[in-house]
Specification:
Elements (H helix, E strand, L loop, with lengths): L3 E7 L2 E6 H17 L2 H31 L6 E5 L2 E5 L7 H25 L19 H16 L7 H14 L1 H26 L1 H27 L15 E2 L4 H9 L5 E5 L5 E6 H10 L16 E3 L4 H11 L4 E4 L5 E5 L1 H13 L5 E2 L2 E2 L4
Parallel strand pairs: 2-3, 5-6, 8-9
Antiparallel strand pairs: 1-2, 3-4, 6-7, 9-10, 11-12
Helix pairs in contact: 1-2, 2-3, 2-4, 3-4, 3-5, 5-6, 6-7, 7-10, 7-11, 8-9
């Protein structure tokens, strides 16, 4: 995720902090300072740090459960609204997805139970009003916050964990795609409700609503792309008419090339026609500003671009795009020479074509079911 800083790793999963989280801490420090003393400000920041340690534990509940099912977990990013664990793929097996989803909230419940066991005053309904009450110990506030995190995350609206549980249950009779559409729609309506509530109860709730709405839309689109790409040859979706660059060409020559084309990604080939990198329009312009016109393309291109044989399906290329966060996937012949490129933009265009077809019709490799 862009604008995030790697602060280390746990069990092979990188831990990243988004810069907005640091601004979030600074904001609450100054709020605490304005309403009290330096000690109050430090206590507020300490509580938020401990709370996000619990959020991190929540995400690792998802991560370790996902690993048990063979799913890679490259990193987890802490944001002001919570944590986001990036999984290489979401299992389509309903039971696996359900177990991964509930693992996070269960970690919060376990933390809350452990903290309540340490409290001499015991447990009461007043615990749920403890957050923000200076008369309540930090242990009590953290216990209450963990219980609220567990409850909030189990709201049956995508992309919260409860929404993933809902999708897993719906996918048994309806299939993964239709279940995602329903869960995402519920998530979007929930986001609208949170947005209206935010007008009364604060901007933070509105910010959460925006995140929920965008995440629900993004997940629905991703699953639709996966379903669309399943039975399509990769050659049907690749860009086969393109201009190439070489690593030894200068940036000013690359600028001349991009000014005469509408390409967004330029493959970089060696003397044998093998793909050695990809450079985008934005990277070329940025390189012109920071490296100068005489810098070689090889200095600014993205390297280690995944490739796929022309005999494979689009689903495999889409998986490589996701897992590698690559700007493109090269489609090659048996000798490894580049035949075409598959990019996120081209895959999105194919989805638009497929969804624009009348139901029950077909256009080349694309078809839209009647129901």
């Amino acid at each position: 995720m862009s604008w995030s800083v790697n602060i280390g790793s746990i069990a092979g999963t990188a831990i990243r902090i988004h810069v907005t989280f640091l601004l979030f801490l600074a904001f609450f420090f100054f709020v605490g300072l304005a309403s009290g003393s330096v000690l109050d400000a430090v206590r507020t920041v300490a509580f938020i740090v401990l709370l996000f340690a619990c959020v991190l534990a929540h995400e690792f509940g998802h991560i370790f459960t996902a690993r048990a099912f063979g799913v890679d977990t490259p990193d987890v990013t802490l944001l002001p609204i919570g944590g986001v664990a990036r999984l290489a793929r979401i299992p389509e097996n309903p039971v696996q997805e359900m177990l991964i989803a509930v693992a996070g909230p269960l970690v919060n419940v376990a933390i809350a139970v452990a903290l309540m066991a340490l409290m001499s005053s015991g447990v009461s309904t007043a615990l749920f009003r403890a957050i923000g009450d200076p008369s309540v110990s930090m242990t009590g506030q953290l216990a209450a916050a963990n219980l609220l995190l567990a409850v909030f995350n189990m709201i049956p609206a995508f992309p919260m964990d409860g929404g993933r549980v809902l999708r897993a249950l719906l996918s048994i009779p309806l299939g993964h795609l239709r279940a995602t559409e329903i869960a995402a729609t519920i998530g979007q309506w929930t986001a609208l409700a949170l947005g209206f509530a935010g007008l009364r109860y604060g901007a933070m709730l509105t910010f959460v609503a925006l995140f929920v709405y965008l995440a629900a839309s993004s997940e629905a689109r991703m699953v639709a792309l996966q379903a669309m790409s399943r039975d399509v040859p990769v050659t049907a979706a690749m860009v086969s008419r393109f201009v190439t660059l070489t690593g030894s060409e200068r940036i000013d020559e690359a600028v001349e090339t991009l000014l005469h084309t509408s390409q967004t990604e330029f493959p970089v080939l060696d003397g044998q026609g093998l793909l050695v990198g990809v450079v985008g329009r934005a990277e070329i312009i940025k390189a012109l500003r920071h490296h100068g016109p005489d810098a070689p393309v090889s200095e600014v291109m993205a390297k280690n671009i995944p490739t796929i044989d022309r005999s494979h399906r689009l689903e495999e290329a889409f998986r490589l795009l996701q897992e590698n966060s690559a700007p493109a996937v090269g489609v090659v012949d048996q000798g490894g020479r580049l035949l075409g490129l598959v990019t996120p933009a081209t895959v999105g265009e194919m989805l638009m074509v497929q969804q624009s077809l009348p139901r029950g019709s077909r256009l080349g490799a694309w078809n839209r079911p009647a129901v």
